[in-house]
Amino acid sequence: MAEQGIVTRSLSREFKDKAGRVRAAVSGVDLTVEPGELVSVLGPNGAGKTTTVRLLTGLLTPTSGSADVGGHDVVRERRAASRACGFSLGGDLGLYPRLTALQNLTFFGLMYGLRGSHLRQRSVTVLEQMGLADRAGDTVGTFSRGMKQRLHLARALLHEPSVLILDEPSAGLDPQSAAAMRRLVGGLAEEGRSILLTTHDMREAEELSDRVVLMKDGAVHSEATPGRLRVAAAARLGHSVQIIWTAADESVPACDACPGLLESRQDRGTTRLRVRDGAEAAGWVLARFGDQVASVSVTPPSLEEVFLDMVDSR
């Protein structure tokens, strides 16, 4: 794999509406994805994720700022940047339903400059890698949504790029297919590729990401590892404390006097608290009711809660 991944510097893109007003879809985005690193970009609809992807893949030209993909400027060295990058936008677009899987890959391989036996071998290899070798001769119109998503990924890998840009690769998949897609994507990062992933699936982002970038209103709101984002959010949202009692009936202790209590819910033999300080609350529970406690656990806010907190913040 190449030593360069993705680097953007104050990347911006503006559009004019019908009335001539200028709107910034992406504003001053600084983003890096190192070799072997998988970075997920999360944000609500309209946050600028898709525009950022289109800027990185050469489908749009920046209004200002710059972006390098695989060490190549996406404007000045567009062809070299495109060859260093494989991208999958998913869905039904970008594949030819009347062609077979192998014919689709042959067509796109020719577009990337692959020829002859090398093209045939690469097509077979990526179909095997995606678990589609037995469907190579079937028309894509007969494929399920999950199979189409895997074929999109096969197409992205065909020319052996060092950088992958994946736009919601598991969107619309059933849980089993989504889990299989996560395994495939995780394995590609382990091969040393730089992977930028956009997703609305919080589980996917938390399971796969080295770093998560939260976007809002066209700009980067915050970025860190999933764990650090969750811990940082705990200062605003509090910790969750789950207490499982030895008694499984309604006679479990009340925790209304727990220090820093924000919320309390009880369900038979389990009490769930939202508190300011998880360690302090757990210590209080054990000190006061230790012989009645089967287990107590403390967790920071989930990544989904972090995301919703960002969306609701001003």
From TrEMBL:
Keywords: Antibiotic resistance, ATP-binding, Nucleotide-binding, Transport. Its main location: membrane. The keyword Transport applies. One of its GO terms (molecular function) is ATP binding. It is found in: Cell membrane. InterPro entries: AAA+_ATPase, ABC_transporter-like_ATP-bd, ABC_transporter_ATP-binding. It is a peripheral membrane protein. The keyword ATP-binding applies. Residues 6-242 form the ABC transporter domain. Belongs to the ABC transporter superfamily. This is ABC transporter ATP-binding protein. It comes from Streptomyces poriferorum. The lineage of its organism: Bacteria, Bacillati, Actinomycetota, Actinomycetes, Kitasatosporales.
